[in-house]
Amino acid sequence: MAKDKMTKVRWLYSYQKECRWLEEMAMKGWFLENITIGIIYKFRKDEPKRMMYEIDRFNLPKKPTLEEIQHKEIFMEMAQELGWQEVTHDESLTYYFCKEYEEGGINELYNEEESRRYRAQKFGSFLKKQAKAMTFWAMIITIIDVLIRLESLAIREMADKLVWYDWFTLIYVIICCATALFSWKLGEKTEKELSMTRAEWEASVDTALHKTVRKLVLTTRGLSKLLKKEEEKGWILKSVTPTKYFFEKREGGQQVYTMDTKWLTNQRLKKSGASKIDDSKDWQGLSNDWQIQSVKDAQEKGWQFVCALENRTIIYRGDADVVEALNDAKYDYSMRSTSIIGEYGMFLILCGLIGGVIGFFVGLLSF
Amino acid sequence: MDEALQKKYIPMTETTYYTLLSVIVPRHGYAIMQFVSELTKGRIQLGTGTLYTMVGRLTADGVVRIELTEDGKKAYQLTEIGMELLQIETQRLENQLQDGRETLGREGQNG
What we know:
The complex is a heterodimer.
Chain A: E1 5-9, H1 15-27, E2 30-36, E3 40-45, E4 51-57, H2 66-81, E5 85-89, E6 94-100, H3 113-154, H4 158-161, H5 163-194, H6 198-205, E7 210-214, H7 220-232, E8 235-240, E9 244-249, E10 255-261, H8 262-271, H9 289-300, E11 304-309, E12 313-319, H10 337-366
Antiparallel strand pairs in A: 1-3, 2-3, 4-6, 5-6, 7-9, 8-9, 10-12, 11-12
Helix pairs in contact in A: 3-5
Chain B: H1 3-9, H2 14-22, H3 29-39, H4 48-60, E1 64-68, E2 74-78, H5 80-107
Antiparallel strand pairs in B: 1-2
């Protein structure tokens, strides 16, 4: 007898990917029956069919109104009326629905942008709430540890017996923080993915159209070289983070790149005799006045804006025959420190270093 | 009528406008979807979640109320407030259209 049940274990961090996979399984005649702890999928064999899978959840706010309490009932009834069948739900109360594909019909649960974003937010806020809870417990455990330590200073013989608790706190806090960070990132990713239609998502993950390069580039010259090399292969820069470069497959291939920062902009201003851009009230390095100046300078020299990393860096692109160098060649090898971690980041690192040095000397004195 | 409600709904989105039109007489979810689809010749298609999000908000604001039909299913109907909103919006659209036509007739030829 042919098998008519099957269990598969999959760890998928993307609902879009998960739904697509469930649809592929249905095409092979395997239909989802149950999901346990989010990774164990039970399937039942039947005639292969083109199915659409969707997810939703029913979070309640802190003080739900009568209508909000009744929402789930209304939704379930409406879903059934419009052809969606509830398949199952998992332990985090994410509900799975399916519907047979209908040519020319509506094959999405949310087929309009505003409501799609509304659903995405439900998932995003659920995951972010978990992250907040984790952070809260990490803090509580740390505070308890500190209190116990203060207590044990008074009772000397207690101190040695409590070392295990320090270890417990340390491990607990590390696990909490890691989980919180993971949940938060997952929440952001989920929200972004669920705001897209399936087609938009498919395009966004298509490796023939997009590519990410992870690299720490330290100099302007290094950056120009990297971007030019990718451009020659048809990969055009779209956006950056400190260590990631996102490319898009597009027409092009002859353009060159350059980078500008506040410091470089001020060097240019100094050279031309103008006053430096500096806001003494801007303690946190939030001002982007220099960027406004930088764009003007760059456009004058034929450069086009590509992307910026907050107010730390701007990257420009331009035709090699048209553009003039934005900055003096002598700055090509200067370190990109501030443009990577930001002014405030530098400030915090400096504070940390000073604190460390003071702590070291205080420690020396007390022995 | 509540001024905040007017501010929230006027001007209203096309989808909201058609949904309100569809519940002047009581209709089930599926009937709403079909009504809107037919009236707009298939241009506006309401997906389940989209319709539910909309109806959920409309009922919470008292623009639409839920009525149980004999078979225990839920039908939706416009309330008095909803009717008033629909009329205000229709008048507003009429004014907008008139302004548009007049201005285009007067200044549109130059372009």
